[in-house]
């Protein structure tokens, strides 16, 4: 039988098939199979017979776990919001993938970062999407025209690898974007899984060899995965997402994987006409447009990584005009909203049945902490009762299915930030929380153990009186 020279590869999950199909049977995505040439003969597998013989021949030296290793040297940009997310700067020879929607500001961020790095290091910016003139134009708009960055417009991995391998190899190299890079040894088009994977592999190998810090830009598909896609995430040392809502100026840099540092840190930026500006105190920013005395809003005292972050949760509850009420969420998990609604109905006696429910995290932030449950519940109950949550209160706590309010971590950090921003009261889970610790007397505490206690704070949201005042 003739050997197949091409196969169909899912651009979402990387699975390969011998025939085209409308849907990938591995990940379930539609219209993601693209024909790609089979690169080369598969490497010889380690058959059982060879491995038995191999163990006699091969040698693997083990070392003790106990011992000292130096912390890897870091190349910091000096942009605190960027360095925090990378864990203190770029590591020599390590590859970082920066993913995000097209147009969210990845090129702007990396151009700014690489210009700061160029003050102390040999830094190179390779664009496969824009000409050198376009990059220069952008840099001068950002007020960075004098930075000592070297530019190139290139898409051939062979050329880039040759540049990394030169005697004067750069300390830091930005590739914008990995989807534009291609290897002439593969027949597939740039942007396909095979090209993205092989290009990244070559670049990462070259960077490791020379100790160059590699920053790869990756566009994200509308499903929210880095196109080309998960196959890249396990090849690089760190994965960072740059996110934000279109129409909002705030941008969040969020670490999702880091072999050399923490993964839950965020960096906050403001997109201005002079580029991205760091936001050292994001709580102030996210609460800037809050109006205290309206129903349907509550302030959540959250924590992102090591940093406290206060955000406003807004809810709107309106009589439905459809057969099935609508539930719409921006910035929070919709499954989690359904759960909180169900608990408020079943354990708190509220009735949302005939109502559309809209929930929004103000400012375009995405909140993923379960600790936000209590603030969400308060915003929902407040919207239904048309009674404002006390304007000087912050809330946090996880809600369980029995209606119990559960403890969450880092209470002191949350309370301190709330006090710093002028709040006078915290509504938080009752129980084991340490009293008398640092920051304990900063705020008045209302401790609650069950969602019913929360509803008691809203006079009219009692069971069977859910219609609100006329
Ligand atoms: P860009 O960095 O090109 O996005 P990406 O590389 O992620 O595709 O950013 C594009 C957007 O940023 C564009 O809509 C204009 C906006 N922008 C500003 O608001 N201010 C600026 O100073 C710059 C350079 C861009
Ligand atoms: Mg770009």
Give the arrangement of secondary structure elements.
Layout: E1 6-10, E2 16-17, E3 33-37, H1 48-57, E4 74-75, H2 80-86, E5 90-91, E6 95-100, H3 106-117, E7 123-127, H4 132-141, E8 150-153, H5 157-165, E9 172-176, H6 193-210, E10 213-219, H7 230-233, E11 238-243, E12 250-258, E13 266-272, E14 275-278, H8 282-287, E15 297-304, E16 307-319, E17 327-330, H9 334-346, E18 355-361, H10 373-385, E19 393-395, E20 398-399, E21 405-406, H11 411-420, E22 425-429, E23 444-448, H12 451-456
Parallel strand pairs: 6-10, 6-11, 7-8, 7-9, 9-10, 15-19, 17-18, 19-22, 22-23
Antiparallel strand pairs: 1-2, 1-3, 4-5, 11-12, 12-13, 13-14, 15-16, 16-18, 20-21
Bound molecules: thymidine-5'-diphosphate (TYD) and magnesium ion.
Q: Tally the structural domains.
A: 3
N-to-C CA distance: 79 Å
Order of strands in the sheet with most strands = 8-7-9-10-6-11-12-13-14
Number of E-type strands:
23
């Amino acid at each position: 039988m003739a050997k197949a020279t091409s196969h169909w590869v899912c651009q979402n999950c990387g699975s390969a098939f011998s025939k085209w199909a409308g849907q990938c049977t591995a990940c379930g995505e539609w219209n993601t199979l693209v024909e790609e040439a089979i690169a080369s003969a598969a490497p010889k597998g380690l058959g059982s017979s060879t491995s038995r013989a191999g163990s006699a021949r091969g040698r693997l030296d083990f070392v003790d776990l106990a011992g000292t290793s130096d912390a890897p040297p870091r190349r910091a940009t000096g942009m605190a919001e960027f360095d925090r997310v990378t864990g203190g700067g770029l590591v020599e020879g390590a590859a970082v993938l920066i993913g995000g929607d097209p147009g969210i500001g990845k090129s702007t961020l990396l151009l700014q970062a690489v210009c700061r790095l160029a003050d102390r290091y040999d830094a190179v910016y390779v664009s496969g999407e824009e000409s050198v003139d376009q990059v220069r134009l952008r840099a001068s708009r950002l007020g960075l025209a004098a930075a000592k960055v070297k530019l190139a417009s290139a898409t051939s991995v062979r050329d880039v690898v040759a540049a990394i391998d030169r005697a004067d190899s750069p300390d830091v190299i930005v590739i914008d974007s990995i989807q534009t890079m291609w290897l002439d040894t593969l027949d597939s088009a740039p942007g396909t899984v095979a090209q993205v994977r092989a290009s990244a592999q070559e670049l990462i190998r070259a960077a490791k060899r020379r100790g160059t810090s590699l920053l790869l830009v990756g566009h994200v598909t509308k499903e929210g995965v880095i196109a080309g896609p998960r196959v890249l995430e396990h090849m690089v040392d760190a994965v960072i997402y740059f996110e934000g809502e279109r129409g909002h100026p705030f941008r969040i840099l969020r670490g999702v994987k880091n072999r050399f540092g923490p993964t839950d840190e965020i960096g906050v930026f403001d997109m201005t006409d002079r580029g991205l500006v760091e936001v050292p105190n994001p709580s102030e920013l996210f609460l800037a447009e809050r109006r205290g005395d309206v129903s349907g809003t509550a302030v959540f005292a959250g924590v992102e990584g090591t940093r406290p972050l206060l955000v406003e949760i807004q809810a709107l509850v309106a009589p439905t005009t459809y057969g099935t009420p609508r539930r719409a969420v921006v910035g929070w998990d919709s499954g989690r909203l359904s759960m909180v609604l169900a608990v408020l109905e079943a354990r708190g006696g509220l009735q949302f049945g005939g109502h559309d429910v809209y929930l929004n995290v103000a400012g375009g932030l995405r909140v993923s902490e379960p600790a936000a449950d209590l603030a969400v519940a308060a915003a929902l109950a407040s919207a239904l009762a048309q009674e404002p949550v006390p304007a000087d209160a912050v809330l946090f706590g996880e809600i369980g299915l029995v209606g119990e309010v559960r403890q969450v971590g880092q209470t002191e950090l949350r309370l301190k930030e709330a006090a710093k921003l002028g709040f006078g009261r915290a509504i938080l889970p009752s129980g084991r929380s340490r009293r008398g610790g640092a920051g304990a007397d900063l705020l008045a505490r209302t401790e609650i153990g069950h969602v019913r206690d929360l509803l008691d704070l809203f006079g009219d949201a009692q069971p069977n009186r859910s219609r609100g005042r006329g």
